[in-house]
Amino acid sequence: MKTAIEDAQVTKGPAGTVEGNGHVTVEATGVSPEVLEFLASASADEIPVNPSHEASTTVSRRSLLGSLRDKIAGHAETGRGNPTAPQARRFLLWLGAIVVIFNCIFAFWVIARPANGGRIIGGADVLEAAGPLLGALVYFAMSRRLKDRTGSALHKTWDLHAWSPTFLALGAVWYAVGQLIWSYYELVIHQAPFPSLADAGYLAAYPFLFLGILFLPVRRTSGAARARVLLDGIVIMAAVVTFSWYFVLGPTLLQGGEADFSKLVGTAYPLCDLGLVFCLLLLAGQSGSSHLRRAIWTLSLGLLAVVCADIVFDYKNLHGTYETGGLSDLGWPLGFMLICLGALAARVDGARQVATARESTGGTEDISPRSPLPAWYSLAPYALVPLVGGLMVYVGHVGGNPAVDPGVYIGGAVLIGLVLV
C-alpha cells in the first residue's frame, strides 16, 4: 500500500483511493471496498491523537498515517478470517449432499442385498472404509480452499482450539485405516484375528475424537452453570456405566478362555464408547453457543451414530452373532461422515465468530448470546432413575451372572445417591 498524507480530514476519492480535501491520498491496492468505505467515513475526531496534539484542531501527519495503517491492517485481518456466507454455505451443502448420497447407497446395499452373501460382505467392508475416508478428504480439501481464500487467520499453529476440527477429521481417517486393514483380513486372507492391527487403527480414532470435542471453541459459562453441567453429567454417566457393565463391559471382562491382552483390547472398546457418551454430554452442555450450534448438533448426531453402532457390535460380538453387512454397520460411515461435516461447520463458524468478535470488541472473546441449557438435559438424570431401577428389579428376579449382578446394585445405589444430592 502506498500512502501520502498531509493534515486533513478523510473523505472518499476515486476507486482504490481515499482522499481528504485534496490533501490526503491513500492508494490501497488489494484492499476491499468495505475497508475504503470505512476509511472514507472516518473523521479526524475518530482518530486517536498524540497527547501533545490534544488541543490542536488538526491531526498530525504521523498520527493519521499510523491510524490509517492500523485500521486497514485490522480490517484486512478480519476479512481473512471471515469467509463469505454464500461460499461457506456452498461448501457445507456439498459435503452434506455427499454424506446423504453415500449413506443412501450403503443403506440400499445392506437392505436390498443386490448380490450374493460374499459380495455383500465385501461391498460393506469397502463402503465402511470409503465413507469416513471420503468425508475426511473432502473436509481437508474444502478447509484448504477456505484457507487459501481467507488467509492464514483460520489456523494458528499452536492454538489447539483452531486444530479441533482437524482432530475430528483425523479420527475419521484412523477409523478408515482400521477398516481397510480389517477388509484385507476378511476379504484377502479370509481370517478374522483378534486382536489385530485393525484394532490399532480403530482405537486410534478415539483419542482424536476426544481432543476434537474437548478443544471446541465454545462459549465460556459461569461457575454455577459448569457445576450443574458436571453434576448432571456424572448422574447420566452413572446410569450409562451401570447398563454398560451389565450388558457389555462386565461380561467382556469376565469371559473365560481369553488371553489377558485380548480382554484388554476387548474392554477398550466399551470404555471408549463411554468416553464418547461423555463427549456427547459435553456437547449437550455447550449447545447454547449460538455460533457453533449447527456444528454441535451435527457432531452430536455423528457421535451418537458411532456409539450406537459400537454398542450393537459389542453386544452381538460378545454373543457370537455379529456378521458384516448388517444394517447396524451403517452407523460407522454415517457417524464419521457426520463428524467430518460437523468439523467443517465448526471450522467455518469458528472463523466467522473470531472475525465478528475482533470487529465488535477488538478481541477473540465469544460474544454470542448465552442460551439456557436444553430442558431434556436437566430432566435426563431423573428419567434414568426408573430405568436403572427396572434393571435392578430384573436382575433380582431373573438373576444371571453372580459376578456381574453386584455391579448393577452398586451402580443403582450411586445413581440414587447422586440424584438425591
Number of strands: 4
Q: Helical element count?
A: 12
The biggest sheet, with number of strands, parallel, antiparallel or mixed sense and barrel status, is: 4 strands, antiparallel
Strand percentage: under 5%
What would you say about this model in short?
The protein is mainly alpha-helical and about 425 residues long. Helices cover about 70% and strands about 5% of the residues.
Structural overview:
The chain is mostly helical and 421 residues long. It is 70% helix and 3% strand. It contains 12 helices and 4 strands, in the order ββββαααααααααααα. Strands 1-4-3-2 form a 4-stranded antiparallel beta sheet, with helices on one face. Strand 3 and strand 4 form a beta hairpin. Helix 7 packs parallel to helix 9 (293-318). The chain is globular, with a radius of gyration of 28 Å. The chain starts with a strand and ends with a helix.
